[in-house]
């Protein structure tokens, strides 16, 4: 296992941040994992749920995203 972030993880972080910024510009402030997976598939980006979850959690730790839990549903949104 690599100790630091690999180039693929950095690319995925940029990709997900750009998608979340695009969704926010369209008026969608928070998304669930399911919503995000549908957006990725619609755009022809095929990542597993594990890959997306890993990158989202890294972005939360870096302070770029907020993780909001409502009952059993987790929403991710850009930190303002």
Would you mind describing this structure in some detail?
There is one protein chain. The mean pLDDT is 88. Helix content is 54%, strand content 19%. The longest helix has 19 residues, at 7-25. Helix 1 packs across helix 3 (49-62). With 80 residues, it is α+β, with helices and mostly antiparallel strands. The protein contains 3 helices and 3 strands, in the order H-E-H-H-E-E. A hairpin with a 2-residue loop joins strand 2 and strand 3 (73-78). It has helices at 7-25, 33-42, 49-62; strands at 30-32, 65-70, 73-78. The protein has a 3-stranded antiparallel beta sheet. The protein has a single domain (7-78), classed as Winged helix-like DNA-binding domain superfamily/Winged helix DNA-binding domain (Arc Repressor Mutant, subunit A, Orthogonal Bundle), CATH 1.10.10.10.
Layout: helices, strands, pairs:
Elements: H1 7-25, E1 30-32, H2 33-42, H3 49-62, E2 65-70, E3 73-78
Antiparallel strand pairs: 1-3, 2-3
Helix pairs in contact: 1-3
The CATH class, by name, is: Mainly Alpha
**Helical fraction:** 40-55%
Stretches with pLDDT under 50, minimum 5 residues: none
> What value does the Rg take, in angstroms?
12 Å
Mean pLDDT: 88
Q: Specify the biggest β-sheet.
A: 3 strands, antiparallel
- CATH architecture descriptor name: Orthogonal Bundle
The proportion of residues in beta strands is 15-25%
> Got a strand count?
3
Q: What distance lies between the first and last C-alpha atoms, to the nearest angstrom?
A: 33 Å
> In CATH, what is the homologous superfamily?
Winged helix-like DNA-binding domain superfamily/Winged helix DNA-binding domain
Instruction: Determine the oligomeric state from the structure.
Output: single chain
- Give me the secondary-structure category: alpha+beta
Q: How many domains is the backbone divided into?
A: 1
CATH topology: Arc Repressor Mutant, subunit A
Order of secondary-structure elements: HEHHEE
Strand order of the largest sheet: 1-3-2
* Total count of helical runs of at least 4 residues: 3
């Amino acid at each position: 296992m690599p100790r630091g972030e690999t180039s693929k993880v950095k690319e995925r972080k940029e990709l997900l941040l750009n998608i979340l910024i695009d969704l926010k510009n369209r008026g969608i402030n928070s998304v669930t994992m399911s919503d995000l997976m549908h957006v990725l598939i619609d755009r022809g980006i095929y990542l597993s749920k594990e890959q997306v979850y890993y990158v989202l959690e890294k972005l939360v730790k870096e302070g770029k995203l907020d993780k909001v839990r409502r009952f059993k549903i987790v929403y991710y949104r850009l930190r303002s």
